[in-house]
Specification:
single chain; mainly alpha; Arc Repressor Mutant, subunit A; two-stranded antiparallel sheet; 7 helices; elongated
């Protein structure tokens, strides 16, 4: 039986029910750390959970079978109702599709190579481009707004260059086998 240890919850999880081979799958912590290092920011919970769910779906893309919400939620320590809301947002955007029924779940609509982090963050966070200044009366405010827009454009460009496949590959490279005694 394959098990995974989630350091956030300090417990082991049985992953056999969800069809996850722990020897091949990177840990929750590894994927989260990869996301944070790529984005160079602290992610809010909704953004992090959306990225984790999309990466989970990317790992299962080649199998062609939908992944159940319960399995994603258990593997990544996400409350199912919150995850369902996130997945429905991703479905409305066209990044994922769902299948009803006992064998149903969610799957990516395109290959992981074609879906970028920019697309996922756009769905969850919306546009992050600053459009106004809090201190619009200040003669220096437009300069600050311009710099913020430049930084936002650089971030977006960087996120557009990173596909889900790239992140899954990075996560797999940084994990070695875990042994439990």
């Amino acid at each position: 039986m394959w098990i995974a240890y989630d350091p956030r919850e300090r417990r082991q999880r049985n992953l056999v029910d969800c069809g996850i081979d722990n020897a091949l799958a990177p840990s929750v912590t590894t994927i989260t750390l990869q996301l944070r290092s790529v984005l160079a920011v602290n992610l809010n919970a909704k953004t992090e959970y959306a990225c984790l769910a999309m990466l989970e779906l990317a790992q299962h893309f080649d199998g062609g079978e939908p992944v159940q919400v319960r399995c994603i939620a258990e593997r990544h320590g996400i409350k199912s109702p919150f995850l369902v809301q996130i997945l429905q947002d991703l479905k409305r955007s066209g990044l994922v599709s769902s299948t009803r029924g006992a064998a149903g779940g969610y799957r990516l609509t395109s290959s992981p190579q074609k879906i970028t982090l920019a697309q996922v963050l756009e769905v969850v966070e919306g546009s992050t481009e600053p459009t106004t200044c809090a201190s619009s009366a200040s003669p220096l405010a437009p300069v600050l707004l311009k710099v913020c827009n430049e930084l936002s454009a650089i971030r977006r460009e960087r996120l557009e260059a990173i596909s889900l496949a790239d992140l899954v590959e990075r996560a797999c490279e940084s994990t070695g086998p875990m042994w439990f005694i």
